[in-house]
Structure formats: C-alpha cells, structure tokens
Specification:
It is a single chain. By secondary structure, this protein is mainly beta. It folds into two domains: about 110 residues, no CATH class; about 25 residues, no CATH class. The protein is built from two helices and seven strands; from the N terminus they run βαββββββα. Strands 2, 3, 4, 5 and 6 form a five-stranded antiparallel beta sheet that branches. Strands 1-7 form a two-stranded antiparallel sheet. The longest helix is centred in the C-terminal third of the chain and has 11 residues. The protein is rod-shaped, with a radius of gyration of 22 Å. Bound molecules: zinc ion (ZN) (2 copies). The site of one zinc ion has 7 residues, from loops.
Length: about 160
C-alpha cells in the first residue's frame, strides 16, 4: 500500500471531545496511530509493528450514548510458530464500543490497543507446509534435511 502524500493529521488523535461529536451529530475519523503510543513495548508479544496502525472510525450519537464503530489495521512482523523465521502479515479487527454521553472526552487508547492485541492470531506460519525445526538438533528443516534424517550408522 502506498502512503498518501499529504497526511491529514501529523499528531495521533486518540482523544475525541464528546461535545464536538454531539454538535456535529456524529464524527468520522480516518488516520494512522503509532503503535508505540498505544502500548508499551512487549504488549503484543513477539509481534513487531512494521508501521503505524491505520484506523477508520465512525462516531454516532444515540440517546444517552455515543456509539463508535470502526476498524483498526496494522502490518506486523512476527516469528513463524514452527521455524521461528520472520513472517510479515497484516491483521485487522473491527471495533464497536459505546460510551456514556455524559463523559467529556472519549479516549480510544485502550480500545485500539485491545483490538490490535485480539487481531494478532496465536498461531502464524511462514507457509502452510513449513517443515519447522528439528526436535533433536534444532536445524531449520526448510533448508533441507539435517543429520538426524540420515541413517543412524553408516558403513
Ligand atoms: Zn516456518
Ligand atoms: Zn536434526
């Protein structure tokens, strides 16, 4: 994906004023959020963000609450479950939350962090047929057979 040439917002916007949302009868926000601003290093386990997360959010006013619906996506690099080799993958998660209309601001830091954490699968493979590591010697079997595959005693 190519980056847009002019970024609409330089600073990450994670806090929204409820008054603005009410006055405008809703609000949409599309932008990027540095993952570091959401969580301390290590929050996402061994998955490392390759760039900022992109968010696409829509707030709507309904009765005594504000409904936020949207999606967060991010590109990650994480180790293959079998061979530990690096895997590049994009994960995303839909989010939907309601907030009381009485609060002054809506801070999305926690919601976005949780959605990103949920989006990362427990098990990631570099490829479906990844041969993994040898249980005996730890060699990467994707690179070919290791010594353990050879007959035990050669003449
Ligand atoms: Zn692998
Ligand atoms: Zn081996």
């Amino acid at each position: 994906m190519a980056k847009p040439k002019n970024t609409p917002r330089a600073a990450p916007l994670l806090t929204f004023a409820v008054r603005d949302i009410k006055e405008q009868g809703g609000l949409t926000h599309t932008g990027t959020v540095p993952v570091d601003s959401l969580a301390a290093e290590g929050t996402f386990g061994e998955a490392k963000p390759k760039g900022p997360a992109s968010v696409d959010l829509e707030f709507s006013v309904g009765g005594n609450s504000i409904l936020m619906q949207g999606r967060v996506d991010c590109d990650w690099q994480l180790p293959c479950n079998r061979c530990l080799g690096p895997v590049d993958a994009a994960f995303g998660e839909d989010i939907e939350e309601t907030y009381p209309i009485t609060q002054e601001t809506i801070d999305l830091t926690d919601d976005l962090r949780e959605a990103l954490a949920i989006s990362i699968p427990q098990r990631v493979l570099c490829r479906e047929e990844c041969a993994g590591l040898c249980a005996k010697c730890g060699a990467n079997k994707n690179l070919g057979p290791c010594r353990c595959d050879a007959p035990a005693a050669k003449p």
